[in-house]
Amino acid sequence: MDVRIGIQNSPRELGFETDSSAAEVEQAVAAAVAGTAPVLRLADSKGNVYVVPSAALAYVEIGTEENRRIGFVG
């Protein structure tokens, strides 16, 4: 699933694919926004870890969990 994170005072967004479910990502974002977690920590499908301070979050876009189609659709 694709995740895009907007960071305050930054012209670019952070985008990556993760193997986590939408519910797991949403739970981590909710904890960061509520103030129970000081940082938002997510890992991508390659094993890289992204840590963003909760106070710097502008938005988080969580993509759908559908498989990508390869080839022609008939």
Structural account:
The chain has 74 residues and is of the alpha+beta class. It has one domain. Helices cover 18% and strands 36% of the residues. The chain is built from one helix and five strands; from the N terminus they run E-E-H-E-E-E. The chain has one helix at 22-34; strands spanning 2-7, 13-17, 39-43, 49-53, 57-62. The protein has a three-stranded antiparallel sheet with strand order 2-1-5, covered by helices on one side. It has a two-stranded antiparallel ribbon with strand order 3-4. Strand 3 and strand 4 (49-53) form a beta hairpin. The protein is globular. The two termini are 24 Å apart. The model has no long low-confidence stretch (mean pLDDT 90).
Topology:
Elements lengths: L1 E6 L5 E5 L4 H13 L4 E5 L5 E5 L3 E6 L12
Antiparallel strand pairs: 1-2, 1-5, 3-4
Radius of gyration: 14 Å
Main sheet attributes: strand count, strand direction, barrel closure: 3 strands, antiparallel
The main sheet orders its strands as: 2-1-5
Average per-residue pLDDT, rounded, comes to 90
The share of residues in helices is: 10-25%
N-to-C CA distance: 24 Å
Number of strands: 5
Low-confidence stretches: none
Whole-number tally of structural domains: 1
Organism: Agromyces seonyuensis
Pfam families: DUF3107
Protein name: DUF3107 family protein
